[in-house]
Write a structure and sequence with these properties.
Length: 269
């Protein structure tokens, strides 16, 4: 029988809520007020949504409060808290977009660079207009790719191990794009995988290193990890498929410093 981890539990049936509150209220008793509001808000949200678990946090003027409700990993387990590790999934698409912006600002890449500039071996296959797919198209879900690359289901302990770079190349060589690049929008993990692979190629370094250098390091995020401490990291994740879907990023609720949370743009806080 499979043992459900906190990552599984959170992804399948849980909810994570992180909020900033009381921005316009006077602070007579900062810690007590934050604790009271976070606890009350979290309880109401937990009861109203009927989810198995919730972590809620608030930051104001350098003061923080975190509270957890429910069961972190199934019946009988304790409530989650500020040190509970959880997978943040597609929140990391904002990270990937910000890495793209950093690299474009430095001149390492251009938003209009074609995908084939950094992944020349992937095309053109049946896609005569593949060379028209730009990095900006990938970042805005406008590349013409499906939501997911077709793949066999992986084992419970390593569900993304069957998603390989060869799978992307095979689809591109056999299937036409779903629409002309830039002419429509379709949410696509497939496209973001290609974007992350392209950024990694342009920077000549593994994507996790690029992410730490551009995003998590500068904003003081000390805890993010590209694998769960409870599971084995796949070889494909290490080498060829560095995005959030294939190389899941896990965070602690207290991962970001108060300074980082209050000074960075909303897309990466």
């Amino acid at each position: 029988m499979r043992t459900m981890t906190i990552a599984d539990w959170t992804l399948k049936t849980g909810a994570i809520l992180v909020i900033a509150v009381l921005l316009g209220m006077p602070m007579a008793r900062a810690d007590a007020l934050l604790d009271e509001v976070v606890d009350f808000t979290g309880q109401i949200f937990f009861i109203d949504t009927k989810v198995p678990a919730v972590v809620i946090g608030a930051v104001r003027d350098g003061d923080t409060a975190v509270a957890g409700f429910g069961e972190r990993a199934g019946p009988g387990s304790p409530a989650p808290d500020g040190d509970t590790i959880m997978r943040i999934g597609s929140i990391t698409k904002a990270f990937t977009g910000d890495v793209l912006a950093h690299m474009a600002a430095k001149g390492t890449v251009a938003l209009t660079d074609p995908l084939t500039k950094w992944q020349p071996d992937l095309g053109p296959g049946l896609n005569a207009d593949l060379e028209r797919v730009t990095l900006l198209n990938l970042a805005t879900h406008a590349g013409g790719f499906p939501r997911e690359v077709p793949h066999e289901a992986g084992p419970d302990t390593d569900p993304f191990s069957t998603i390989t770079r060869d799978a992307f190349a095979a689809w591109i060589k056999k299937e036409p794009l779903l629409f002309s690049p830039g002419s429509a929008v379709l949410y696509s993990n497939f496209g973001f995988d290609l974007l992350a692979m392209s950024l990694s190629a342009a920077a000549k370094k593994p994507y996790p290193d690029l992410l730490q250098e551009s995003i998590t390091g500068p904003i003081g995020m000390k805890d993010p990890a590209s694998r769960s401490p409870m599971s084995r990291r796949s070889a494909s994740c290490q080498v060829t498929l560095p995005t959030e879907q294939r190389c899941p990023i896990f965070l602690r609720a207290r991962s970001s410093s108060a300074r980082a949370a209050s000074t960075r743009p909303p897309t990466i806080s």
